[in-house]
Amino acid sequence: MTKTRLEALSDGVIAIVMTILILEFKVPKLESSEGDWVLVKDFIHDLPVVLSYIISFLVLIVWWMSHHQLFHGAEYMDRKTIILNGIFLMFIAFIPYPTALMGEYPSLRFPSILYGIIGLLCGGSYYGLYHHILNKNAGHPFNASGNALSFKNTWLHLTVYIIAIGIAFVSPYISIAVYAAVPIYFIVKKNG
Amino acid sequence: MTKTRLEALSDGVIAIVMTILILEFKVPKLESSEGDWVLVKDFIHDLPVVLSYIISFLVLIVWWMSHHQLFHGAEYMDRKTIILNGIFLMFIAFIPYPTALMGEYPSLRFPSILYGIIGLLCGGSYYGLYHHILNKNAGHPFNASGNALSFKNTWLHLTVYIIAIGIAFVSPYISIAVYAAVPIYFIVKKNG
Amino acid sequence: MTKTRLEALSDGVIAIVMTILILEFKVPKLESSEGDWVLVKDFIHDLPVVLSYIISFLVLIVWWMSHHQLFHGAEYMDRKTIILNGIFLMFIAFIPYPTALMGEYPSLRFPSILYGIIGLLCGGSYYGLYHHILNKNAGHPFNASGNALSFKNTWLHLTVYIIAIGIAFVSPYISIAVYAAVPIYFIVKKNG
Amino acid sequence: MTKTRLEALSDGVIAIVMTILILEFKVPKLESSEGDWVLVKDFIHDLPVVLSYIISFLVLIVWWMSHHQLFHGAEYMDRKTIILNGIFLMFIAFIPYPTALMGEYPSLRFPSILYGIIGLLCGGSYYGLYHHILNKNAGHPFNASGNALSFKNTWLHLTVYIIAIGIAFVSPYISIAVYAAVPIYFIVKKNG
């Protein structure tokens, strides 16, 4: 029972974050003399926002997939699971801000650095949640190899994000490319 | 289990998109000398936004109905189902932007073209999801005639949207009429 | 299965509408010389918005309660149920706009009239949904007296709203009082 | 059945409130001559908003945890449960406004006072819901000690909030510290 509602709350938060990401994308106000070309120019000018949105959407798909796999295997939940899951969701809910910032100012360094920091906080809090659920369910028929892989994935995630933050100080564009590459890697690879 | 949460995430995203569509509809700021007639005039001026909202709401009802039918029949889900479903939801989440744009500037061509493109992306990603779920569940007591029909529907959807995009270059109003006709057709016809 | 997802979609839309109602309530921008009293004055000035929000929240609780009761008793669902339910949800999603308008301009007539019209559309579409579900489940152990009552309630709702719209042309404040009285009546009375 | 949908509606509202809290955090508009440092300065300037958001997120985690525990133990639900739960959710949905106000003007007294009042209304309506569910399920194998504890918690919550409102008249910062301490206390303590 606990699990069902905890999953519902998590699905709710992730679904909302996925959807409000795009709200930053505003309809421009045209002068009466302006027409289609102004809309097209505005749209092209906003393409980095769209790209930034797509990156974060893919990131959220991967987080949801990991969360789903983790809770699917788990059987026992407690108070601490609720709290650690809540903290993870809190950092997930932060994602729209650096996403919008990075889309608006892709050439600046601060947006890419902040995006990386939020990503690290998501990864770190997920690691804590993961660790706790594994301990809580130790000895149960939990898919051990899958867990080993997921631990590896979490560390991989954290390491790549730290590197991407470092790169952001030099070139935000390369850093954004790394952020885009992470979810694509997890999406295309065979084993979870 | 996978199916339940995947459906919950999809229901969440579609419910949010349905609801935020109308947020574009803002309360006007009146001068102290202005009264009811300014509100009425503002409301009438915004009627294309309402109409555009209603079209997209009907489109979303049809998408939800198709998604529901597809997952209802399916039994086996995998990693790829999650990803393809996520990409479909991403395009669904794009719908509010061209909806607002089309409501604000119904006489311009770009909004209708963009609305059609997003519709094509929804249709194309749905087709991919459909194809994958059908392959994954091949040989199972899946309603074959329903599936054949749905494939036909998907192709019909894609073809009509391509034509509507073409029409939008000439007359956006006819194009909008086509976008309105598509969900009404799927709603009134007998077999899904 | 159909029922579960249809309920989930409905719960999602109603939960979102309940929550975005209050988003209209904005934090004021203070000048550096201004302090607590400006915030208090702004808050008092916005109290009609809060009141308008509370009315709509109560209305939504009653709608949710009715919807819940209706689907609880029903067993068979079809394509048409999905569509009629979708149309009901569409009018529900319209509620925030007249709510905000009525809160902002409670002394004007148009907001109260529009609020009544949206209420009528919710009531009318609910009546359609109700009628269809009852026909679809005829002969089944459906709580007949409860249904008779609910039909009476729906007609009561529609009649009172038509009267309230008429009153709004004369005095919007009395009309708002009627809108507030309707959900309170359904909440305090014993039998649903 | 009633319970499942009531939980779903509550999870939906709480998930949305958790997520829209952060929407107040807007991307700044830079002049073309401005760069990273303006973004950093803007971010630092907005840190109280982030802090205020984190406090409310923790508060919401604790509310959700309490709600979950309460409904987990309960078996019988009725019309009155729906209504009392709806009123509780209404006050929960108010949380984003004082949160944003407190984040924007942490040195003023009104935001902290209003935050406390909303907290009291959440606590009071939760107490009513709690009381009703306990009466409704009296004599059933409900965890009696857990309930006694939760009653104690509810009273503790109400008392501390009244004190914090009093403190806000003297020092809003100490009051905010108390609001932050409450969820942290409930999160770190062993027994619920």
Automatic annotation (TrEMBL), chains A, B, C, D:
This is TMEM175 family protein. Belongs to the TMEM175 family. It catalyses: K(+)(in) = K(+)(out). The chain crosses the membrane at residues 47-66, 82-101, 113-134, 155-188. PANTHER family: ENDOSOMAL/LYSOSOMAL POTASSIUM CHANNEL TMEM175, ENDOSOMAL_LYSOSOMAL PROTON CHANNEL TMEM175. It comes from Paenibacillus sepulcri. It is found in: Membrane. Keywords: Ion channel, Ion transport, Membrane, Potassium, Potassium channel, Potassium transport, Transmembrane, Transmembrane helix, Transport. InterPro entries: TMEM175-like. Its main location: membrane. Signal peptide: none annotated.
